[in-house]
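Hi R.,

Here's the chain you asked about this morning:
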Amino acid sequence: MIRTVLARAGLVAAAACAATLLTAAPAAAHGADAPDGTDYRARVTAVTPARPGLTVRVIEAGARLELTNHTGRAVEVIGYSGEPYLRVGPDGVFENTRSPATYLNRTLAGDTALPADADPAAPPSWRRIDDGTTARWHDQRALWPESTPPAQVRTAPEREHRVRDWTVPLRDGTDPLTIGGTLDWVPPPDAYTWWAVSIVGLLAVGGLGLFAAAAPAGTRALAALGALLVVGGVVAVAYPVGREVDAGAQGVGGVLAGLLSGQIWSLLTGLGAVAAGWYALTRRPAADFAVALAGACLALFAGVANAAVFARSVAPVPWSPHLARVMVAVVLITGVGATAAGVLRLHAASRAAARATVPAP
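And here is the predicted structure, written out as C-alpha cells:
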C-alpha cells in the first residue's frame, strides 16, 4: 500500500514537472509583458502641465505605462514619429492603426513587424480597444531596450546610475502635455545569499520528517508541517495577487480575472497547500502524502516560477523588492521542505510496514 502511494506521488511529481515545461512558452510570453523582475527602475515624475483627473504611473516592474483619464476630454498619446498613437477619453480607448507605435508597443522588445499600411504621416484610423478610461502600453522611451547595460553601469555595476530622463508627449485637444520620468539602474541583490538562506531553511523543514510518525514528536512535526503549508499557501496566493494589482487590475473582479488567465498555477497550488496544511493539522490518514504532493507543487509553481526576483532589484509587486524576495524564499522553504519531510515520513512508514510483514523466525 505504501509503495503504491509512493509510486503515485512520483507520477504526480513527474506530471507537475512536465506541466511546468509544457507551459513554459505561454509563461514566457506573459513574462515578456510582465517580467519576473528587472534591474531598471522606471518612474513617472510629473505630467506637465498638470490636468486634474489625468494620472500616469509605471506598472509591471516598469514594463508598461498606465494612463487614466477622468478629465471628461479625450487625451492623445503621441507616437514615436509625432503621430497620434492612442486616444483615451470618456468614449473609451482607441488606437491608431496607422501608427507604427501601435505595433511596436505590442511587445516589450518593440520588435513587431510593421504592416504595409503603417504610416505615421497618414490620417489616423481609430479602432476602439477598450470601453474604459485607462490605457496601458509598452513605451520604448521609458525602457532600456538593449540586452547589455549602459556603459556607465558596466564601468561601476555596484552603484546606482541614472540611465536617462525620458518624456512621452500627449495632446489635450490642441494643448501639448508631457509625461516626464526617469530610468535608473539599481544594482541587483546577491542571489547566492537568498539561495543559501532558502536551502538552510528547507533543510530545517525537511528535517521534521526524521521524527518517527508514531511518536509524540512525530505528531507535533506533522502539525508543524501543516502550519507551515498553510502559511506558505497564503503567501503563494498573495504574491500573484500583488502581481495583478501591480499590473493595473481593478477591484476584486479584475484581480480574479487576471489570476485565472495568467497566474492560475500559482493560485491553485497556493490554495492546495492551504488545504493540505489544514488536512495535516487535523492529523488525517494519508496526511504525509498530501504534505509531500502539496509541497512539490508549491515549490514548482509558486517558488521556482518566481525565483528570478532573487537576482533582480525591482520586483513586479506593489511592495518592496526585499519583501518580495522574503515571500518567495518562504514559499521555496515551505514547498521543498514539506516535500522532503513528507517523503521521509512515507519512506519510514513503508519500511515499518515491510518489517511488520516479515514472519518471525
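One quick note: The first helix runs from residue 2 to 22.

Cheers,
M.
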